[in-house]
């Protein structure tokens, strides 16, 4: 008679235990991964500087490629 109620309560308990376990794992992950704000901003500044350096390199290479294309368009027809 009470078997179906017992089964229902047991299944809900198992689901609740899994949810608690998932939340506990997430709490541990968040506690482990938390970062000092000063360290975060310092790292972010370093990444921004590296990004700017890459942008400058890209601009120089793009400018070089445009110059090379202009040279080829100007002088290549003469040689053919």
How is this structure best described in words?
This protein has 80 residues and is mostly helical. It folds into two domains: 1-34; 35-80. Helices cover 92% and strands 0% of the residues. The longest helix is centred in the C-terminal third of the chain and has 43 residues, at 37-79.
Total beta strand runs? 0
Write down the overall mean pLDDT. Answer: 85
First CA to last CA: what distance?
A: 98 Å
Task: Return the string of H and E elements.
Answer: HH
Helical proportion, percent range: over 70%
Largest sheet: none
Regions with pLDDT < 50 over 5+ consecutive residues? Answer: none
Structural class: mainly alpha
The total count of helices amounts to 2
Percentage of residues in strands: under 5%
The gyration radius over C-alpha positions equals 31 Å
Number of domains: 2
So what's the overall shape?
elongated
Layout of SSEs?
Blueprint: H1 3-33, H2 37-79
Q: Keywords, please?
A:
single chain; 80 residues; mainly alpha; 2 domains; 2 helices; elongated
Briefly characterize the structure.
The protein contains two helices and no strands. It is mainly alpha-helical and 80 residues long.
């Amino acid at each position: 008679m009470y078997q179906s109620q017992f089964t229902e309560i047991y299944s809900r308990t198992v689901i609740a235990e899994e949810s608690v376990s998932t939340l506990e794992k997430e709490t541990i992950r968040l506690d482990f991964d938390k970062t000092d704000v000063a360290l975060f901003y310092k790292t972010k500044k370093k990444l921004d500087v590296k990004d700017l350096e890459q942008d400058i390199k890209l601009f120089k290479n793009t400018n070089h490629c445009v110059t090379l294309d202009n040279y080829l368009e100007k002088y290549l027809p003469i040689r053919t």
